[in-house]
Amino acid sequence: MATKTLTSNPNLFDVMKFKAPDGSALECARVLDERNDLIKDLPALPSNGGLFHTGLRISQLPSGSLVNVGGTWGASKSERTPYVEALATIRDSLEMKKDELQTEGKAVSQALIADEDKSHIEGNGQAWCNLLIQGPATPAQNSIVGLMGRSPWNAVDSEFCYNVGGSGNDLRSAWLIQPGPTTVHLIYNPNHPTMGIEFEDKGEDYKVDQDATTKHSWWIVHEYVLQEGICIRDQRAVKRIANIQCAITDYSGPDVIKYALAASKKHSTLSNRPWMLYCDADLYIQLVWGANDKLKVYMSDRNIYQTELPMIGPNIIIRRLDALNHTSGSGESVVG
Questions:
Q1: Are 98 and 220 in contact (CB under 8 A)?
Q2: Contact 200, 58 (CB under 8 A)
């Protein structure tokens, strides 16, 4: 039997999501995969409860006994605590007046629709990531609790949440995540016909003017659904690096790299798997541009994708996550 590894364990979008139930190519999923690093990196497994997933999370490692030669000893096991992870559902529609697309010819109109599809998919992917990381504006929505609001990542400690020490209005967090079936992975509803991704061309819709019932127009309508969740099986596989200053004149790269290395080495039992350091565009620039000589950030293809990507050391891949973006002067609150 072939050995299963992170690279041989298929990602949800690697194989199945590229096909719709009728066997046709699912371009929507292909674009989503290409434009969302979090979805690309994490393997996806079916949930065991439809719209939620339950399991046991390691809370304490097993420990052996000191035994004299000829003595006896007992067995030990990992301590585990129950958890429940919920799926988040994002729904969206594209509605465009047909005659607005016919002023520049068929080829241009088709290109415009394709661009709108990609924009909707990218935006909805970011909205879904926001739910998982920052949490919803209404906490009761689908029982989703964002990582920022969860213990142990909502308070600074020396295990899971590291303090870079920044202050002001342009603070960010970077998230160090170790993907894997036993660490962190995505979950989808196994009963969903396309496993959490839907794209449907509704064709043309006849709409009556609300102000004049005798007037109408024709609209092109597309529907989108993204329904997935994140399952953290081992809390040691998620580290938050908080209070990073990312104003235009800041340069927090050295501190972030220092804490990323420290966090990746804190729990050595997981060090044989790669880490993904997710950050917003502003921090990505600080880490990658101009950092190669002094900070040991370098381009390498010695990673799970065998593609040149910015890396820190031998096993931390820097990834951009647009869902973490903030406009200037409106960053995260200080994590204490």
A1: yes
A2: no
62 Cβ contact partners less than 8 Å away, ≥ 6 residues apart: 76, 77, 78
Tokens of 229: 């969740």
Give, in order, the Cα–Cα distances in Å from 333 to each of 131, 186, 244, 256, 324: 17, 27, 11, 18, 13
Say what the pLDDT of residue 115 is: 84
Pairing of the two strands 238-245 and 161-163: parallel
Report the pLDDT value the prediction gives residue 277, as an integer from 0 to 100: 95
Q: How far is it, in rounded angstroms, from Cα 173 to Cα 24?
A: 40
Asked if the bond preceding 152 is cis, omega within 30° of 0, the reply is yes
Give the pairing of strands 309-312 and 316-320: antiparallel
DSSP 259-326: HHHHHHHHSGGGTTS-EEEEE-HHHHHHHHTT-HHHH-EEEE--STT-S-EEEETTTEEEEE-GGG--
Tell me which amino acid residue 67 is: V
Residue 68: pLDDT band (50, 70, 90) is confident
- Identify whether the C-beta of residue 196 lies closer than 8 Å to the C-beta of residue 189: yes
Q: Which of 16, 53, 314 is nearest to 193 (CA)?
A: 16
Kindly state the percentage of the chain with pLDDT values over 90: 16
Amino acid at 325: N
Contact 168/247 with Cβ under 8 angstroms?
Answer: yes
| Helix (H) / strand (E) containing 331 | none
Statement: residue 15 has pLDDT above 50: no
pTM for the whole structure = 0.81
- Please give the share of the chain, as a percent, with pLDDT higher than 70: 83
- The gap between the terminal CA atoms of the chain, to the nearest Å, is 49
Tokens of 26: 């699912």
